[in-house]
């Protein structure tokens, strides 16, 4: 079960262990003893959400099947605020599984992009034709060896699907309407150095980033696009070596393992499924069947059968319910938080540096896009104190907006949005803001102080910098 570091660095399949952070409404009593309204939930729809955790409902949210335009809170600020910079972190869109269930036929899903197949987006054909003229100079090596859009009639393992492309075309279009049309973030004659683009070396992340940009930019000019390559899923660049982070991770994995052992229904379910496909239970579990089952589920393809029977919805529900319980315990035990604070520091540090430069009036990198994985977004959410946020669904987006107060031009504020929901005042660096300050927005300094110092205080150590926190003795 122990995932080696390679897995953490290279794949996004470890999500089984980190799945579905669940937001539970918390009824709080205010000072007068009057029960205030439930805290605003992160993402779920209050009308349709069932009162108790429903594994099927959770799985549907995870699929993020494109439908009508969603509500979103990006770009909302008092009118005397001016939008200065936007940093976007995305998870790639819907993809084919990374694993096969042993001895079964893999789901037949077509990864070519076809206009008369659902889900469809009006920009889909133009996207394909533009991508096929792609320019090799737009990518840092080794990205230039990757295909620019999915194209296999039977998807390859981990390949982005048409659903995944449409999800990000939609994200891009939504952000364009808000940031470009409404707030004029980029001038009409924008140039290369106003964008900062970075992706891991997987085709699904590069293609997701391209689809989002294609929906976002009014003129997708290949000469102005430059994607950097990021070898680490934590986007930690030159600062990946952090022994204490790995120790937190090992303890977290131990916790997961023990929780799983306690769940006899889960063990029974794996046993039944192993019988159906006729392999030892251990082998089935190692094949991470839920990854494949979710693909069947999201694409409405029935679960596989053998002559011994069929894998079914009952199995799926048991595994999915366990994931939700695992998330709950993960939040309580805080080992993952320790991992996240160290794991997310480098990318948050880089983001804060960029926001500070923008606040100083520099015009470079005013729009940044990181095309990433669940194992990227999940630690960032956790580190920011958004432990109630759900596990990153396909095409999840986490956004940092920087605003300038026109009435006090030296003052800058940040807003944090997750899947279109304003979560600024759920973050650990701004959750007390309303109590202490009359200002309607969260000051940039709060985020800076958190990333440069308070993150390490939150680890409960005496370290005040990344290097010391990573090399603490006797942890
Ligand atoms: C899923 O598939 C079943 C049968 O294959 C079909 O009846 C149903 O309408 C499909 N649901 C959706 C949402 O496409
Ligand atoms: C954080 O940013 C500073 C620049 O402000 C840089 O000198 C430092 O190396 C960065 N640290 C990490 C761990 O990324």
Characterise this structure.
Interacts with B3GAT3; the interaction increases the 2-phosphoxylose phosphatase activity of PXYLP1 during completion of linkage region formation in a B3GAT3-mediated manner. By secondary structure, the protein is an alpha/beta fold. It is built from 15 helices and ten strands. The chain has helices at residues 5-10, 55-63, 124-131, 162-182, 203-216, 243-262, 264-277, 281-286, 289-298, 313-333, 335-359, 374-383, 433-436, 444-458, 466-470; strands spanning 81-91, 195-200, 227-230, 305-306, 309-310, 367-372, 397-405, 412-418, 421-422, 442-443. Strands 1, 2, 3, 6, 7, 8, 9 and 10 form an eight-stranded mixed beta sheet that branches. A two-stranded antiparallel sheet has the order 4-5. Strand 4 and strand 5 (309-310) form a beta hairpin. Helix 7 runs antiparallel to helix 10 (313-333). The chain is globular. The relative contact order is 0.18. Mean pLDDT is 89; it is low at 1-41. The structure holds 2-acetamido-2-deoxy-beta-D-glucopyranose (NAG) (2 copies). One 2-acetamido-2-deoxy-beta-D-glucopyranose binds at residues 239, 345-346, 349, 353, 466.
């Amino acid at each position: 079960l122990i995932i080696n570091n390679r897995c953490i660095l290279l794949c996004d399949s470890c999500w089984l262990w980190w799945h579905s952070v669940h937001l539970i409404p918390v009824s709080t009593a205010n000072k007068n003893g009057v029960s205030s309204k439930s805290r605003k939930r992160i993402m779920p729809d209050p009308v349709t959400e069932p009162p108790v955790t429903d594994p099927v409902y959770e799985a549907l949210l995870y699929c993020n099947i494109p439908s009508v335009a969603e509500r979103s809170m990006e770009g909302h600020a008092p009118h005397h605020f001016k939008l200065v910079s936007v940093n976007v972190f995305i998870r790639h869109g819907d993809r084919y599984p990374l694993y096969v269930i042993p001895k079964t036929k893999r789901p037949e899903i077509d990864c070519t992009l076809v206009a008369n197949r659902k889900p469809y987006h009006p920009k889909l054909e133009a996207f394909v034709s533009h991508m096929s003229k792609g320019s090799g100079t737009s990518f840092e090596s080794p990205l230039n060896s990757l295909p620019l859009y999915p194209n296999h009639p039977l998807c390859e393992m981990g390949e982005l699907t048409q659903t995944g492309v449409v999800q990000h075309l939609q994200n891009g279009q939504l952000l364009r309407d808000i940031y470009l049309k409404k707030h004029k973030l980029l001038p009409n004659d924008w140039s290369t150095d106003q964008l900062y683009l970075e992706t891991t070396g997987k085709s699904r992340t590069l293609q997701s980033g391209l689809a989002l940009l294609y929906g976002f930019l009014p003129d997708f000019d290949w000469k102005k696009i430059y994607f950097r390559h990021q070898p680490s899923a934590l986007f930690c660049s030159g600062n990946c070596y952090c022994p204490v982070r790995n120790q937190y991770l090992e303890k977290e994995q131990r916790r997961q393992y023990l929780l799983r052992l306690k769940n006899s229904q889960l063990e029974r379910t794996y046993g039944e499924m192993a019988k159906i496909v006729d392999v030892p239970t251990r082998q089935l579990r190692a094949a991470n069947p839920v990854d494949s089952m979710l693909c069947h589920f999201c694409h409405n393809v029935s679960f596989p059968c053998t002559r011994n029977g069929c894998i079914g919805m009952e199995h799926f529900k048991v595994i999915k319910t366990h994931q939700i319980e695992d998330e709950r315990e993960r939040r309580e035990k805080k080992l993952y938080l320790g991992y996240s604070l160290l794991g997310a520091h480098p990318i948050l540090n880089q983001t804060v540096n960029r926001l500070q430069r923008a606040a100083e009036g520099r015009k470079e990198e005013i729009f940044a896009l990181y095309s990433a994985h669940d194992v990227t977004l999940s630690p960032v959410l956790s580190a920011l104190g958004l432990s109630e946020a759900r596990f990153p669904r396909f095409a999840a987006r986490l956004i940092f907006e920087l605003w300038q107060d026109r009435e006090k031009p030296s003052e800058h504020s940040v807003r944090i949005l997750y899947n279109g929901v304003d979560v600024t005042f759920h973050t650990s660096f701004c959750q007390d803001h309303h109590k202490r300050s009359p200002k309607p927005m969260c000051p940039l300094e709060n985020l800076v102080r958190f990333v440069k110092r308070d993150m390490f205080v939150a680890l409960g150590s005496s370290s005040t910098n990344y290097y010391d926190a990573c090399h603490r003795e006797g942890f």
